[in-house]
Amino acid sequence: MSLNSYLAQADALDTANPLAPARAHFDLPANQKYFLGNSLGPLTHAARNVVSEAVDSEWKTGLVRTWHDGDWFDIAAATGNKIAHIIGAPHGSVIAGDSTSIALFKVLAAAVQKNTTATRNVLLCDINNFPTDRYVARSVADLFHLRYEECAVSEMPQRLNAHIAVVTASMIDFRSAEIHDVASITESAHHAGALIVWDLAHAAGIIPCDVERHRVDFAVGCGYKYMNGGPGAPAFMYVAPHLVNEVHQPIPGWFGHDAPFAFEDTYRPAQGISRFSSGTTNILSMKALHGALQVFEEFPIASIRTGSIALGNFFIAGFDEHLSQSGFSLGSPRESKARGGHIALLHNRAEALTTELISDGFIVDFRPPNVIRIALSPLFLRFSDVAALIARLRDAI
Ligand SMILES: Cc1ncc(COP(=O)(O)O)c(C=O)c1O
What we know:
Elements (H helix, E strand, L loop, with lengths): L2 H14 L16 E2 L10 H18 L3 H4 L5 H13 L6 E4 L2 H16 L6 E5 L4 H13 L3 E5 L4 H4 L4 E7 L11 H10 L3 E5 L18 E4 L13 E5 L1 H4 L38 H10 L2 H4 L2 H22 L6 E2 L11 E5 L3 H10 L2 E2 L1 E3 L3 E5 L7 H14 L1
Parallel strand pairs: 1-11, 3-4, 3-5, 5-6, 6-7
Antiparallel strand pairs: 2-8, 7-8, 9-10, 10-13, 12-13
Helix pairs in contact: 1-14, 2-10, 4-10, 5-6, 12-14
């Protein structure tokens, strides 16, 4: 297909796109095409409005009374419930707060404490996991006197045995966007007697995660990526309801106490997922995330996944026709069912090309040694944006 036909096809697809109205929820910068919803999701009107209200009315006027008169005290759980809906978790099983690194530390420590014995004393981590996950997992293993091991997720079923206490992996690889089979890896872990902790950072908000259906024990993820919660947005923690009251997280702060305002001498964990809170909620960033999640009430996650696959397939069609002969190759699975929300495009000039693209308003990022990462968020990106990127990449060579 000629480039002109490809561009024309993009316009036709945009006209027919059922997600097209979602773009109006975003306050996007002019003259930029934003392909990094997997890194920092863009601003929504709702996020701005909710934060403005919190600053101008709650903080300015209500001041400290808002802890009791407003929603500040419950907003971490309320935001968790919105996220629960997106990741397929039951109401009351998700809490928002902390950063993903800290959230991971807390749930890994809880899992390790629950499942370690004299002979079951290994923590097994995805070797391709995001660096913070590997650093945190190793630290938890050291602190709790476990042996730390790593392997690829594909090797985990063979590596699981009666010595593994806890397994941790990412549902979607942050480099390649490969989807790991949460259902089967979780089942293998359980079969071996291990607990599993999934990092959903690159999955939450772009693909159904079905944590309840897949019997996931623990999960964490970022609020600032596909959920558009803003820079440094709170992360989230999920703990399966049958486990939550049996586990203890390692930072027993007053916000996770059963009666925070009783100021008791001794820590008594709250029942349910609230025990995973530690200190005072970061209200302003929680408000931004809470507001940003409104768009997911109008556009369910299944429709977002359909839109994301359509954009990904359209990109790959453009790649095959216009880029594959010019030194580019795909670093992500071609098959949509194996591919998450972004595409890794490989080129030996990836770093320089990324700089050129950004200066032309195509916002992508570079991951060493040769990856241009392109996230295709269907809530605000159009097929015509993808076609324009393909045309720009073709011209670059
Ligand atoms: C898969 C994954 N896990 C964890 C993190 C780190 O999250 P945080 O900075 O919230 O600790 C990231 C950040 O990009 C990530 O991609």
